[in-house]
Structures are given as structure tokens and as C-alpha cells.
Specification:
Blueprint: H1 16-33, H2 35-54, H3 70-103, H4 106-111, H5 117-145, H6 154-178, H7 181-198, H8 210-216, H9 220-232, H10 240-260
């Protein structure tokens, strides 16, 4: 028998790792149950990949064969759509969900729990990575069915995707932590549409005037899509230019979010 006055089970917080895993699982379930988030993160990228691969809507740069067949289109489009999937989840989806959690006081209440705030951000990041893995598996399967022939080093692809996730997560948290929820909703969706058109996802940057193109190439989604395209379409080594741009955006975005994020 336990000594008198001993409580069973013992009171106190759960181990930190268990709290983070539990919060990450909750965040993931909430994202998967949200219809609008699924439309943004799954349906739109998949439709873009299928439609633009099968229908000659946008002329893509010709490959080694000198034509723009269906296989050529999906080889160009698949890396860009993978970049769009990271953008939709790490930036747009996370900004909107975190913005409304902040407005409704969810973050304030979680801040009073034993889970530290950095643990909450870690759980959110883990949730984003889980959703991205599901997205990438689905989009890769669809692209392969459409005739995609990926090349390159998977480790380099993983590096680009992780840097892109860090960059977009920092920017999404910065927006969610500084703007009102309604403003975050409007701004995040507007940025998503603008980057879809001008980020080199489905429209090649070569189609833009040179001064505009020089600016667009510095955007994180353009760096991610072009970097993935260099590796997966052309079989190139590590695209250090894209890696450098993404790393700069990641450091700047995460640092600004850590400094300016308001929890209430």
C-alpha cells in the first residue's frame, strides 16, 4: 500500500515529449477535418497538376527532346506543384489557423498550460510536416501516373523542402502573430493566388519581363520550385542559389516571428 497522503496517479505534467506529440496529433486531426484547408492543401494542387499536365494551357520550356508533350509538361509542373503544396500548408493554412486561434484566445489558454510556447510551435511544425508528407505522397503518385520521370538526389530534394517549410512557416507565423484574424485570412489567400501565378509554379518565369523576373526569382516559392525543377527535371546537383535564398527567407521569417509574434 502507498503511504498515507500519497496521491495515485502522481500529479504533475506529462513528459515534454509526450505533450508535444499529443499536441501535434491534435493539430493534425484538426487540419484534416477542416474542409477549406483540405481544398487548399490537397484538391487545388492536385487539380492544377492534372489539368495543366493534360491540357496545353501554358507553354512550358521544351526539354531535351525539343517538344512540349504531356510528359514534358508534367516533368515541368510536378516540382512546381510540390512547391505549391508546401506553400499552401506551411504558409497559407498555418497562418489562417493560427490567426483564428489567436483571436479566439486558444493560444492564450494553451500558454497557461504546462506545454511551453516553443513546444506549441514545435507541435505545429510537426503537424505541418505530417500534412506535407501526405501531400507529397499523393501528388507524387498522381504525377507518376501522368508520366512523370523524376531524377536527382532525394536528399537534395528533402533539403529544399525542409528549407521551404521553414521559410513559409516563419512568414505564416509572422502574419498570424501581427495581423487580425480577418486580415490574415484575406492576406494569406491573396498571397497564395499571387504566388501561384507569379512564383514559377505553373507559369515559367521566362514568360515575365526581365526586370519583373529578376524580382520574382528572389521569392521563396520561386526559389523552391526552380530548385526542385533543377534537381527533379534536369538531374542537377545541389542548387546552391535556391538553397541560399530559402535559407535567408527562413532565418529572416523565423527571427521576425519570434520577435514580433503576439499571443493575445
Amino acid at each position: 500500500m502507498s503511504p498515507a497522503g500519497t496521491l495515485a496517479p502522481a500529479p504533475g505534467a506529462a513528459p515534454l515529449a509526450r505533450m508535444i506529440v499529443a499536441q501535434a496529433a491534435l493539430e493534425t486531426r484538426m487540419l484534416l477535418r477542416h474542409g477549406e484547408q483540405l481544398l487548399l492543401t490537397v484538391v487545388i494542387p492536385t487539380l492544377l497538376l492534372v489539368v495543366f499536365s493534360l491540357v496545353d494551357i501554358v507553354n512550358v520550356p521544351a526539354g531535351n527532346a525539343g517538344d512540349a508533350s504531356g510528359g514534358e509538361r508534367v516533368d515541368f509542373l510536378a516540382p512546381g506543384v510540390l512547391a505549391l503544396a508546401v506553400l499552401s500548408t506551411a504558409f497559407t493554412g498555418q497562418a489562417i489557423s493560427t490567426g483564428f486561434e489567436r483571436r479566439y484566445g486558444v493560444l492564450k489558454r494553451l500558454g497557461a498550460s504546462p506545454l511551453p510556447r516553443w513546444g506549441l510551435m514545435t507541435a505545429k511544425t510537426c503537424s505541418v510536416l505530417v500534412i506535407e508528407l501526405l501531400q507529397l505522397a499523393l501528388l507524387t503518385g498522381v504525377a507518376l501516373a501522368l508520366g512523370w520521370s523524376p531524377r536527382g538526389n532525394p536528399v537534395t530534394v528533402a533539403l529544399l523542402l525542409l528549407l521551404g517549410t521553414a521559410a513559409f512557416s516563419g512568414l505564416g507565423l509572422l502574419m498570424a502573430g501581427t495581423l487580425r484574424a480577418e486580415a490574415t485570412l484575406a492576406a494569406a489567400n491573396l498571397v497564395f493566388v499571387l504566388l501561384l501565378v507569379g512564383g514559377g509554379v505553373v507559369v515559367p518565369l521566362e514568360r515575365f519581363p526581365e526586370p519583373v523576373r529578376a524580382v520574382l526569382e528572389l521569392l521563396p516559392v520561386a526559389a523552391l520550385s526552380d530548385g526542385l525543377r533543377e534537381v527533379l527535371q534536369h538531374g542537377a546537383g545541389t542548387p546552391w542559389g535556391a538553397v541560399g535564398i530559402l535559407a535567408c527567407w527562413a532565418v529572416a521569417g523565423l527571427a521576425a516571428a519570434a520577435r514580433l509574434f503576439r499571443w493575445e
